Request: fold
Amino acid sequence: MFVCLTGNDDGVVHFEDNEDAKDRKVAMGLIGVRTQSGGYETTPALWDSGAFPDSYVSFDFLASLGLTGNIKHNLKTHRAANNNKFQSMGTIKLTVRLPNKFKFSYDYHVADISTEMIIGRNLLKSLGAIISFRKDEIICINAKRCKVKMIKVSEWAQLSEITALDFLNGGIPLPDEFQRMF
Reply:
């Protein structure tokens, strides 16, 4: 929680952060991804407005769902927020189910990333997503006003392969098995 400190003579409102770091929420929420068998696997997704414009899915996550055979192979170079370049190995159309049972299909770039899914700006815009740190939820206006609960930092590592160190990491290497294909 942030506390507003007022009463200063300089006319500037001052804020102080008194929230415990482990209780902070991050723009990551649980969604369902359709598997090869037609069921849905619940997975954390990072709702990342800085992943302009694309959305990404982890090759390892696709392998766990038995979906790697559905990848349309084409190498593409991307630039991360820290200006490092990385390659995706292709794209895949996935069907996603939000917590309110709203389903949609979207093309994701397949890359060797440490989190299962990253929902980028174009998909955020299509969903009409509003990331509300006030309510600790992501509201998807164009998906029947679905509300995706944000995850606490303390729960982050229990739900996903990603950690805060991944944001400090350099380029994202292409897996050896795909390097041999091209």
Remarks:
- The longest strand covers residues 85-97.
- The helical segments are 59-65, 121-127, 153-159, 176-179.
- Residues 110 and 127 are 21 Å apart (CA to CA).
